Amino acid sequence: MSGTVADPAGVAGTVRPRPATAPAPAARRRGVTAINAAAILAWLVVAAFAVAGRGPFAAPTAPAASTDAVPGVAGFAELFVVVWLGEAGEGSEQALAPFYGGDVDLRGVVPGRRYVSRAAAVEIRPDTAGWAVTVVADVLQATDDGWRDGGRRYYRVGVLDDGGRLAAAALPAEVPPPRASATPAAPALTEPTAGPVTDAVARVVRAVLTGDGDVTDLLAPGAALPTFDAPPYHRVSLRGVHTDTRRGVAVAEVAATDVRGNVTVLHYAVRVRIDDGVTVSGLAPVTPDVARMAGG
Fold first, then answer.
1. What's the confidence (pLDDT) of residue 77?
2. 36 with 96, same domain?
3. CB count, 10 Å around CB of 169?
4. Which of 49, 164, 196, 233 could form a disulfide linkage to 256, CB 3.0–4.6 angstroms apart?
C-alpha cells in the first residue's frame, strides 16, 4: 500500500472557538470534556462506518491499511491530538481511553493548560499496519491573564484498525512542518484574452457568484448551473484561464468581491463545447483530475 492523501484546506479539520479568558482549571476541564464528548462520539461513529465499510462510506472489502477509511482516520487523529494536548494530564488520564489503550505516565502534565483552537490532518500515509497521520494544530497556552498564542505545531499519529474500530498505536510525536513543495497538479493558468470561450466562462462564473446576468443563451440543452439562495459576491473578474477544447473544460481563476469589498480568489471548472458557437454544460469546483489536466 503506498501513496499520500493530503488535506491542504483542512477538509476534515476540527475547529473550536477561541476562549475569551482562561477559566478555572476545574471549569476548564469540564468545558473541554463537554466539547470533546460529542465530537469524539460523532467521529468514532464515522470511523466505525469507514473501517467497517458500512453506511455513508460503504465500499467493497479491502485490506485494513487502505485509503477507504481516510475520512474516519483523519478525524480520529485530529481529535486524539486535541484531547491529548488540551484535556489529558495527571489525574485525567482516562481522557485518552477512547483513542489509546496503552499505559501512559502523565505525571507533571496539568490538564487544560493548553487549548487547540484548530486541528487538521494534512497528510495520511498508509503502511502495512495502518496509517501515519500528520496533524497540524493551532495551540493556545493559558496564562494568568487569559490565553497566549502557543504557535502552530505538527504531530505525527500512528492509527490502527483494531478489529473494526480505530485506535492510536502510540502517543503523538511532535515533528517538523512538512517540507513545502510545488503542487504537481496545479492548474497552469494564463492571462485571459478576449475570445468566445473566455467571454463565456467569465459570464457563467459571474452569473453564478453574483446572480447578475442571463446566460441561458450559453447553456447546453438540459444543463443547469449551481445556485445560491443569496449570491455571495457583488463583483467577479476573471484573472486567469486554461482551456482544453479537446477535453471540453476550462479552468478559471476569478477574483470575487463581496459587498464589504473583501476579495476572495477562487478556481472553477467550466464544461464547454465549441461547435458553431460556445455552449456550457456545467460549472463545478476543480477536481484533482481536472487540475492535473490543466497543469499540463
1. 96
2. yes
3. 15
4. 233
* Cα 140 versus chain centre, distance: 21
| Same domain (yes/no): 44, 146 | yes
In CATH, what number is assigned to the domain containing residue 113?
3.10.450.540
Which amino acid is residue 118, in one-letter code? R
Percentage helix, strand, coil, to 5, in the chain? Answer: 25, 30, 40
Domain membership of residue 19 as a residue range: 14-175
What tens digit of pLDDT does each residue of 244-256 get? 888 889 999 999 9
Q: What are phi and psi of 81, to 5 degrees?
A: -65, -40
Burial string for 119-136 (b: 16+ CB within 10 Å, else e) reads bbbbbbbbeeebbbbbbb
Q: pTM (2 decimals)?
A: 0.62
The Cα–Cα gap between 290 and 247 comes to 10
**Based on the domain organization, do 132 and 64 belong to the same domain?**
yes
Q: Confidence class of residue 10 from pLDDT cuts 50, 70 and 90?
A: very low
Q: How many residues does the chain have?
A: 296
Q: Could you give the number of structural domains in the chain?
A: 2
Asked if the structure places residue 56 within a domain, the reply is: yes
Q: CA 68 to CA 50: how far, in whole Å?
A: 7
Tell me the average pLDDT across 213-227.
92
pLDDT one-digit tens code per residue, 262-292:
999 999 999 999 888 899 999 999 888 887 7
C-alpha cell read off for 8: 491542504
CB atoms within 10 A of CB 149: 10
**For the chain, what percent of residues have pLDDT higher than 90?**
57
Are 161 and 225 part of one and the same domain?
A: no
What is the C-alpha to C-alpha distance for residues 155 and 179, in angstroms, rounded to an integer?
Answer: 14
- Tell whether 33 is covered by a domain: yes
Q: Is the pLDDT of residue 58 over 50?
A: no
* Shared-domain flag, residues 66 and 156: yes
